[in-house]
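Chain and conformation:
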Amino acid sequence: MKSILNFVFFIVTVSYTFSQQKSTTKSEDLKSAYDIQDSVMIKTRDGAFISAIVVRKKGIAAPKPVILQFTIYVSEGRDLKSLKAAADNDYVGVIAYTRGKRFSPGEIFPYENDGNDAYDVIDWISKQKWCDGRVGMYGGSYNGLTQWAACKKMHPALKTIVPYVANRAGMGLPMENNVFINPNYEWSFYVGNNKYLDTVAGNDRQRFRKMQFKWWETGVAYKRMDSIDGTPNRLFQRWIKHPSFDEYWQKMSPYKKDFAQINIPILVIDGYYNDSQNSSLYYVRELQKYNPKNNLYLIIGPYSHFGAQKGGTTELNGYKVDADALINTNKITYQWFDYIFKNKPKPEILKDKINYQVMGANEWRSVASIDKMHNGFLTFYLTNTKSGDFYSLNNKKLSKKGYLPQEVDFADRVNSNNFYYPDPIINEQIDTTNGYVFISDPIKEPLLVNGSFLGEIKASINKKDMDIGVTLYEVRPDGTYFHLAYFIGRASYAKDITQRNLLKPDTIESIPFSNTHLVSKQLSKGSRLLITLNVNKNPFSELNYGTGKIVTEESIKDAKEPLKIKWYNDSFVKIPIWK
């Protein structure tokens, strides 16, 4: 779980060094081949102002398509470099900063105004003499979110988007399947403390690690986390008021039928080990659902959140990546723009709509949709029958109903549950100190695990709610454990993320889950599949004590009675395969 802290550290440093000084046009740029407008202010329909930079090649009068980035991260040196790259590729480069950033007056509220502001920025660009009326967008993480937000209300000048590892506010961060997780805690200071970036707070890893563990040890309510830190966190307090995927989150990006009117070509780039993958692929799945005639392409492989934005790394969390998995994200992006705006060939990697790298096979495959990645499912039941040190993952439901008992003492802060994070990806052993582990028989022939696993947990508890974790591994013939995918989520939101439905104590409940991470991995003959099932209890996300109260308001005072679970043996998982 230390790697979650690593992710927290990287999410706030973003692997770059940022300038916090006011923008000035450098003397070398005045002598260069670029025409740089670095103090552009764009007025929105509601009277706000958006700060922007425009870069064009000098001496070119003809209007060009515009490549737009819309971001909360102000990094003028890096930004100018990317804008010059757009100009070098025969486009006009524009970067706009979200409301409240750089020269924009007013408060900073991540996510909330991005859709409307993106529309106004695109509208302004489309009316400039240097724009030929066509705009494309690209970028990763938050910059991916702003692209999808721009599609909430489509501007006719927006012709394509290229989001990498896009966030979806309320789904992935700051909460995952209705469980608030901690990486966004210090991120709110990093982006929200000033007009640029607060790298002092953002890089103070020790401060937030200390805060997180003190919260865990003392057992105070999650909403009081900032009282431990000693600095009010206004954005954290704003977000935790919305544990449901309610209108607050829904209005930030396309939601349900909003996807039906998105008809532009889209290229998505993502990674199997991208922490926000369930956000990014949410957009893909919803577009395929509401607009079957969509023109969306996906490239996905063994990449992390940051790796996907550059094309991968030779080693990922201890896993040596196949040689053919490495790509050049920036090169593919401009090949895509040339395809859209200049009628040049599509990027060669795009053989079909969904293009994915098969881990362990050193090959790429292409299919028409995510659902076409698999041609079957392996269904396994989580039985109460022993199988060596574990329990049996059986392809047949047992005739006699039974269960496995578990007791979780939330007052105990020595022991943590649910070590689900994929770092390292390959483990020598699996934790069996709490929760349950289920293992299949060896597979008799090679097959691909291809897609997102899903399932349904049948359980009864003595309380009204719990947060669960389900993790999928391959147990390789050499005995090592290869992390494939995981799920973390709140039982009371399992059937409807927009509305909490508490469990009835001492009643068998069905807890379906499907919003897991997509993966493609070649399994060899003799490999086994393994599932871990547990209650989520650790310092890296809020603690659900099960009282039925608002979870952020619960504290160790609510831990008087342990959580008692009966995991029933008709619980099952369905693992998508290609064979």
About this structure: The CA atoms of residues 206 and 426 lie 28 Å apart.
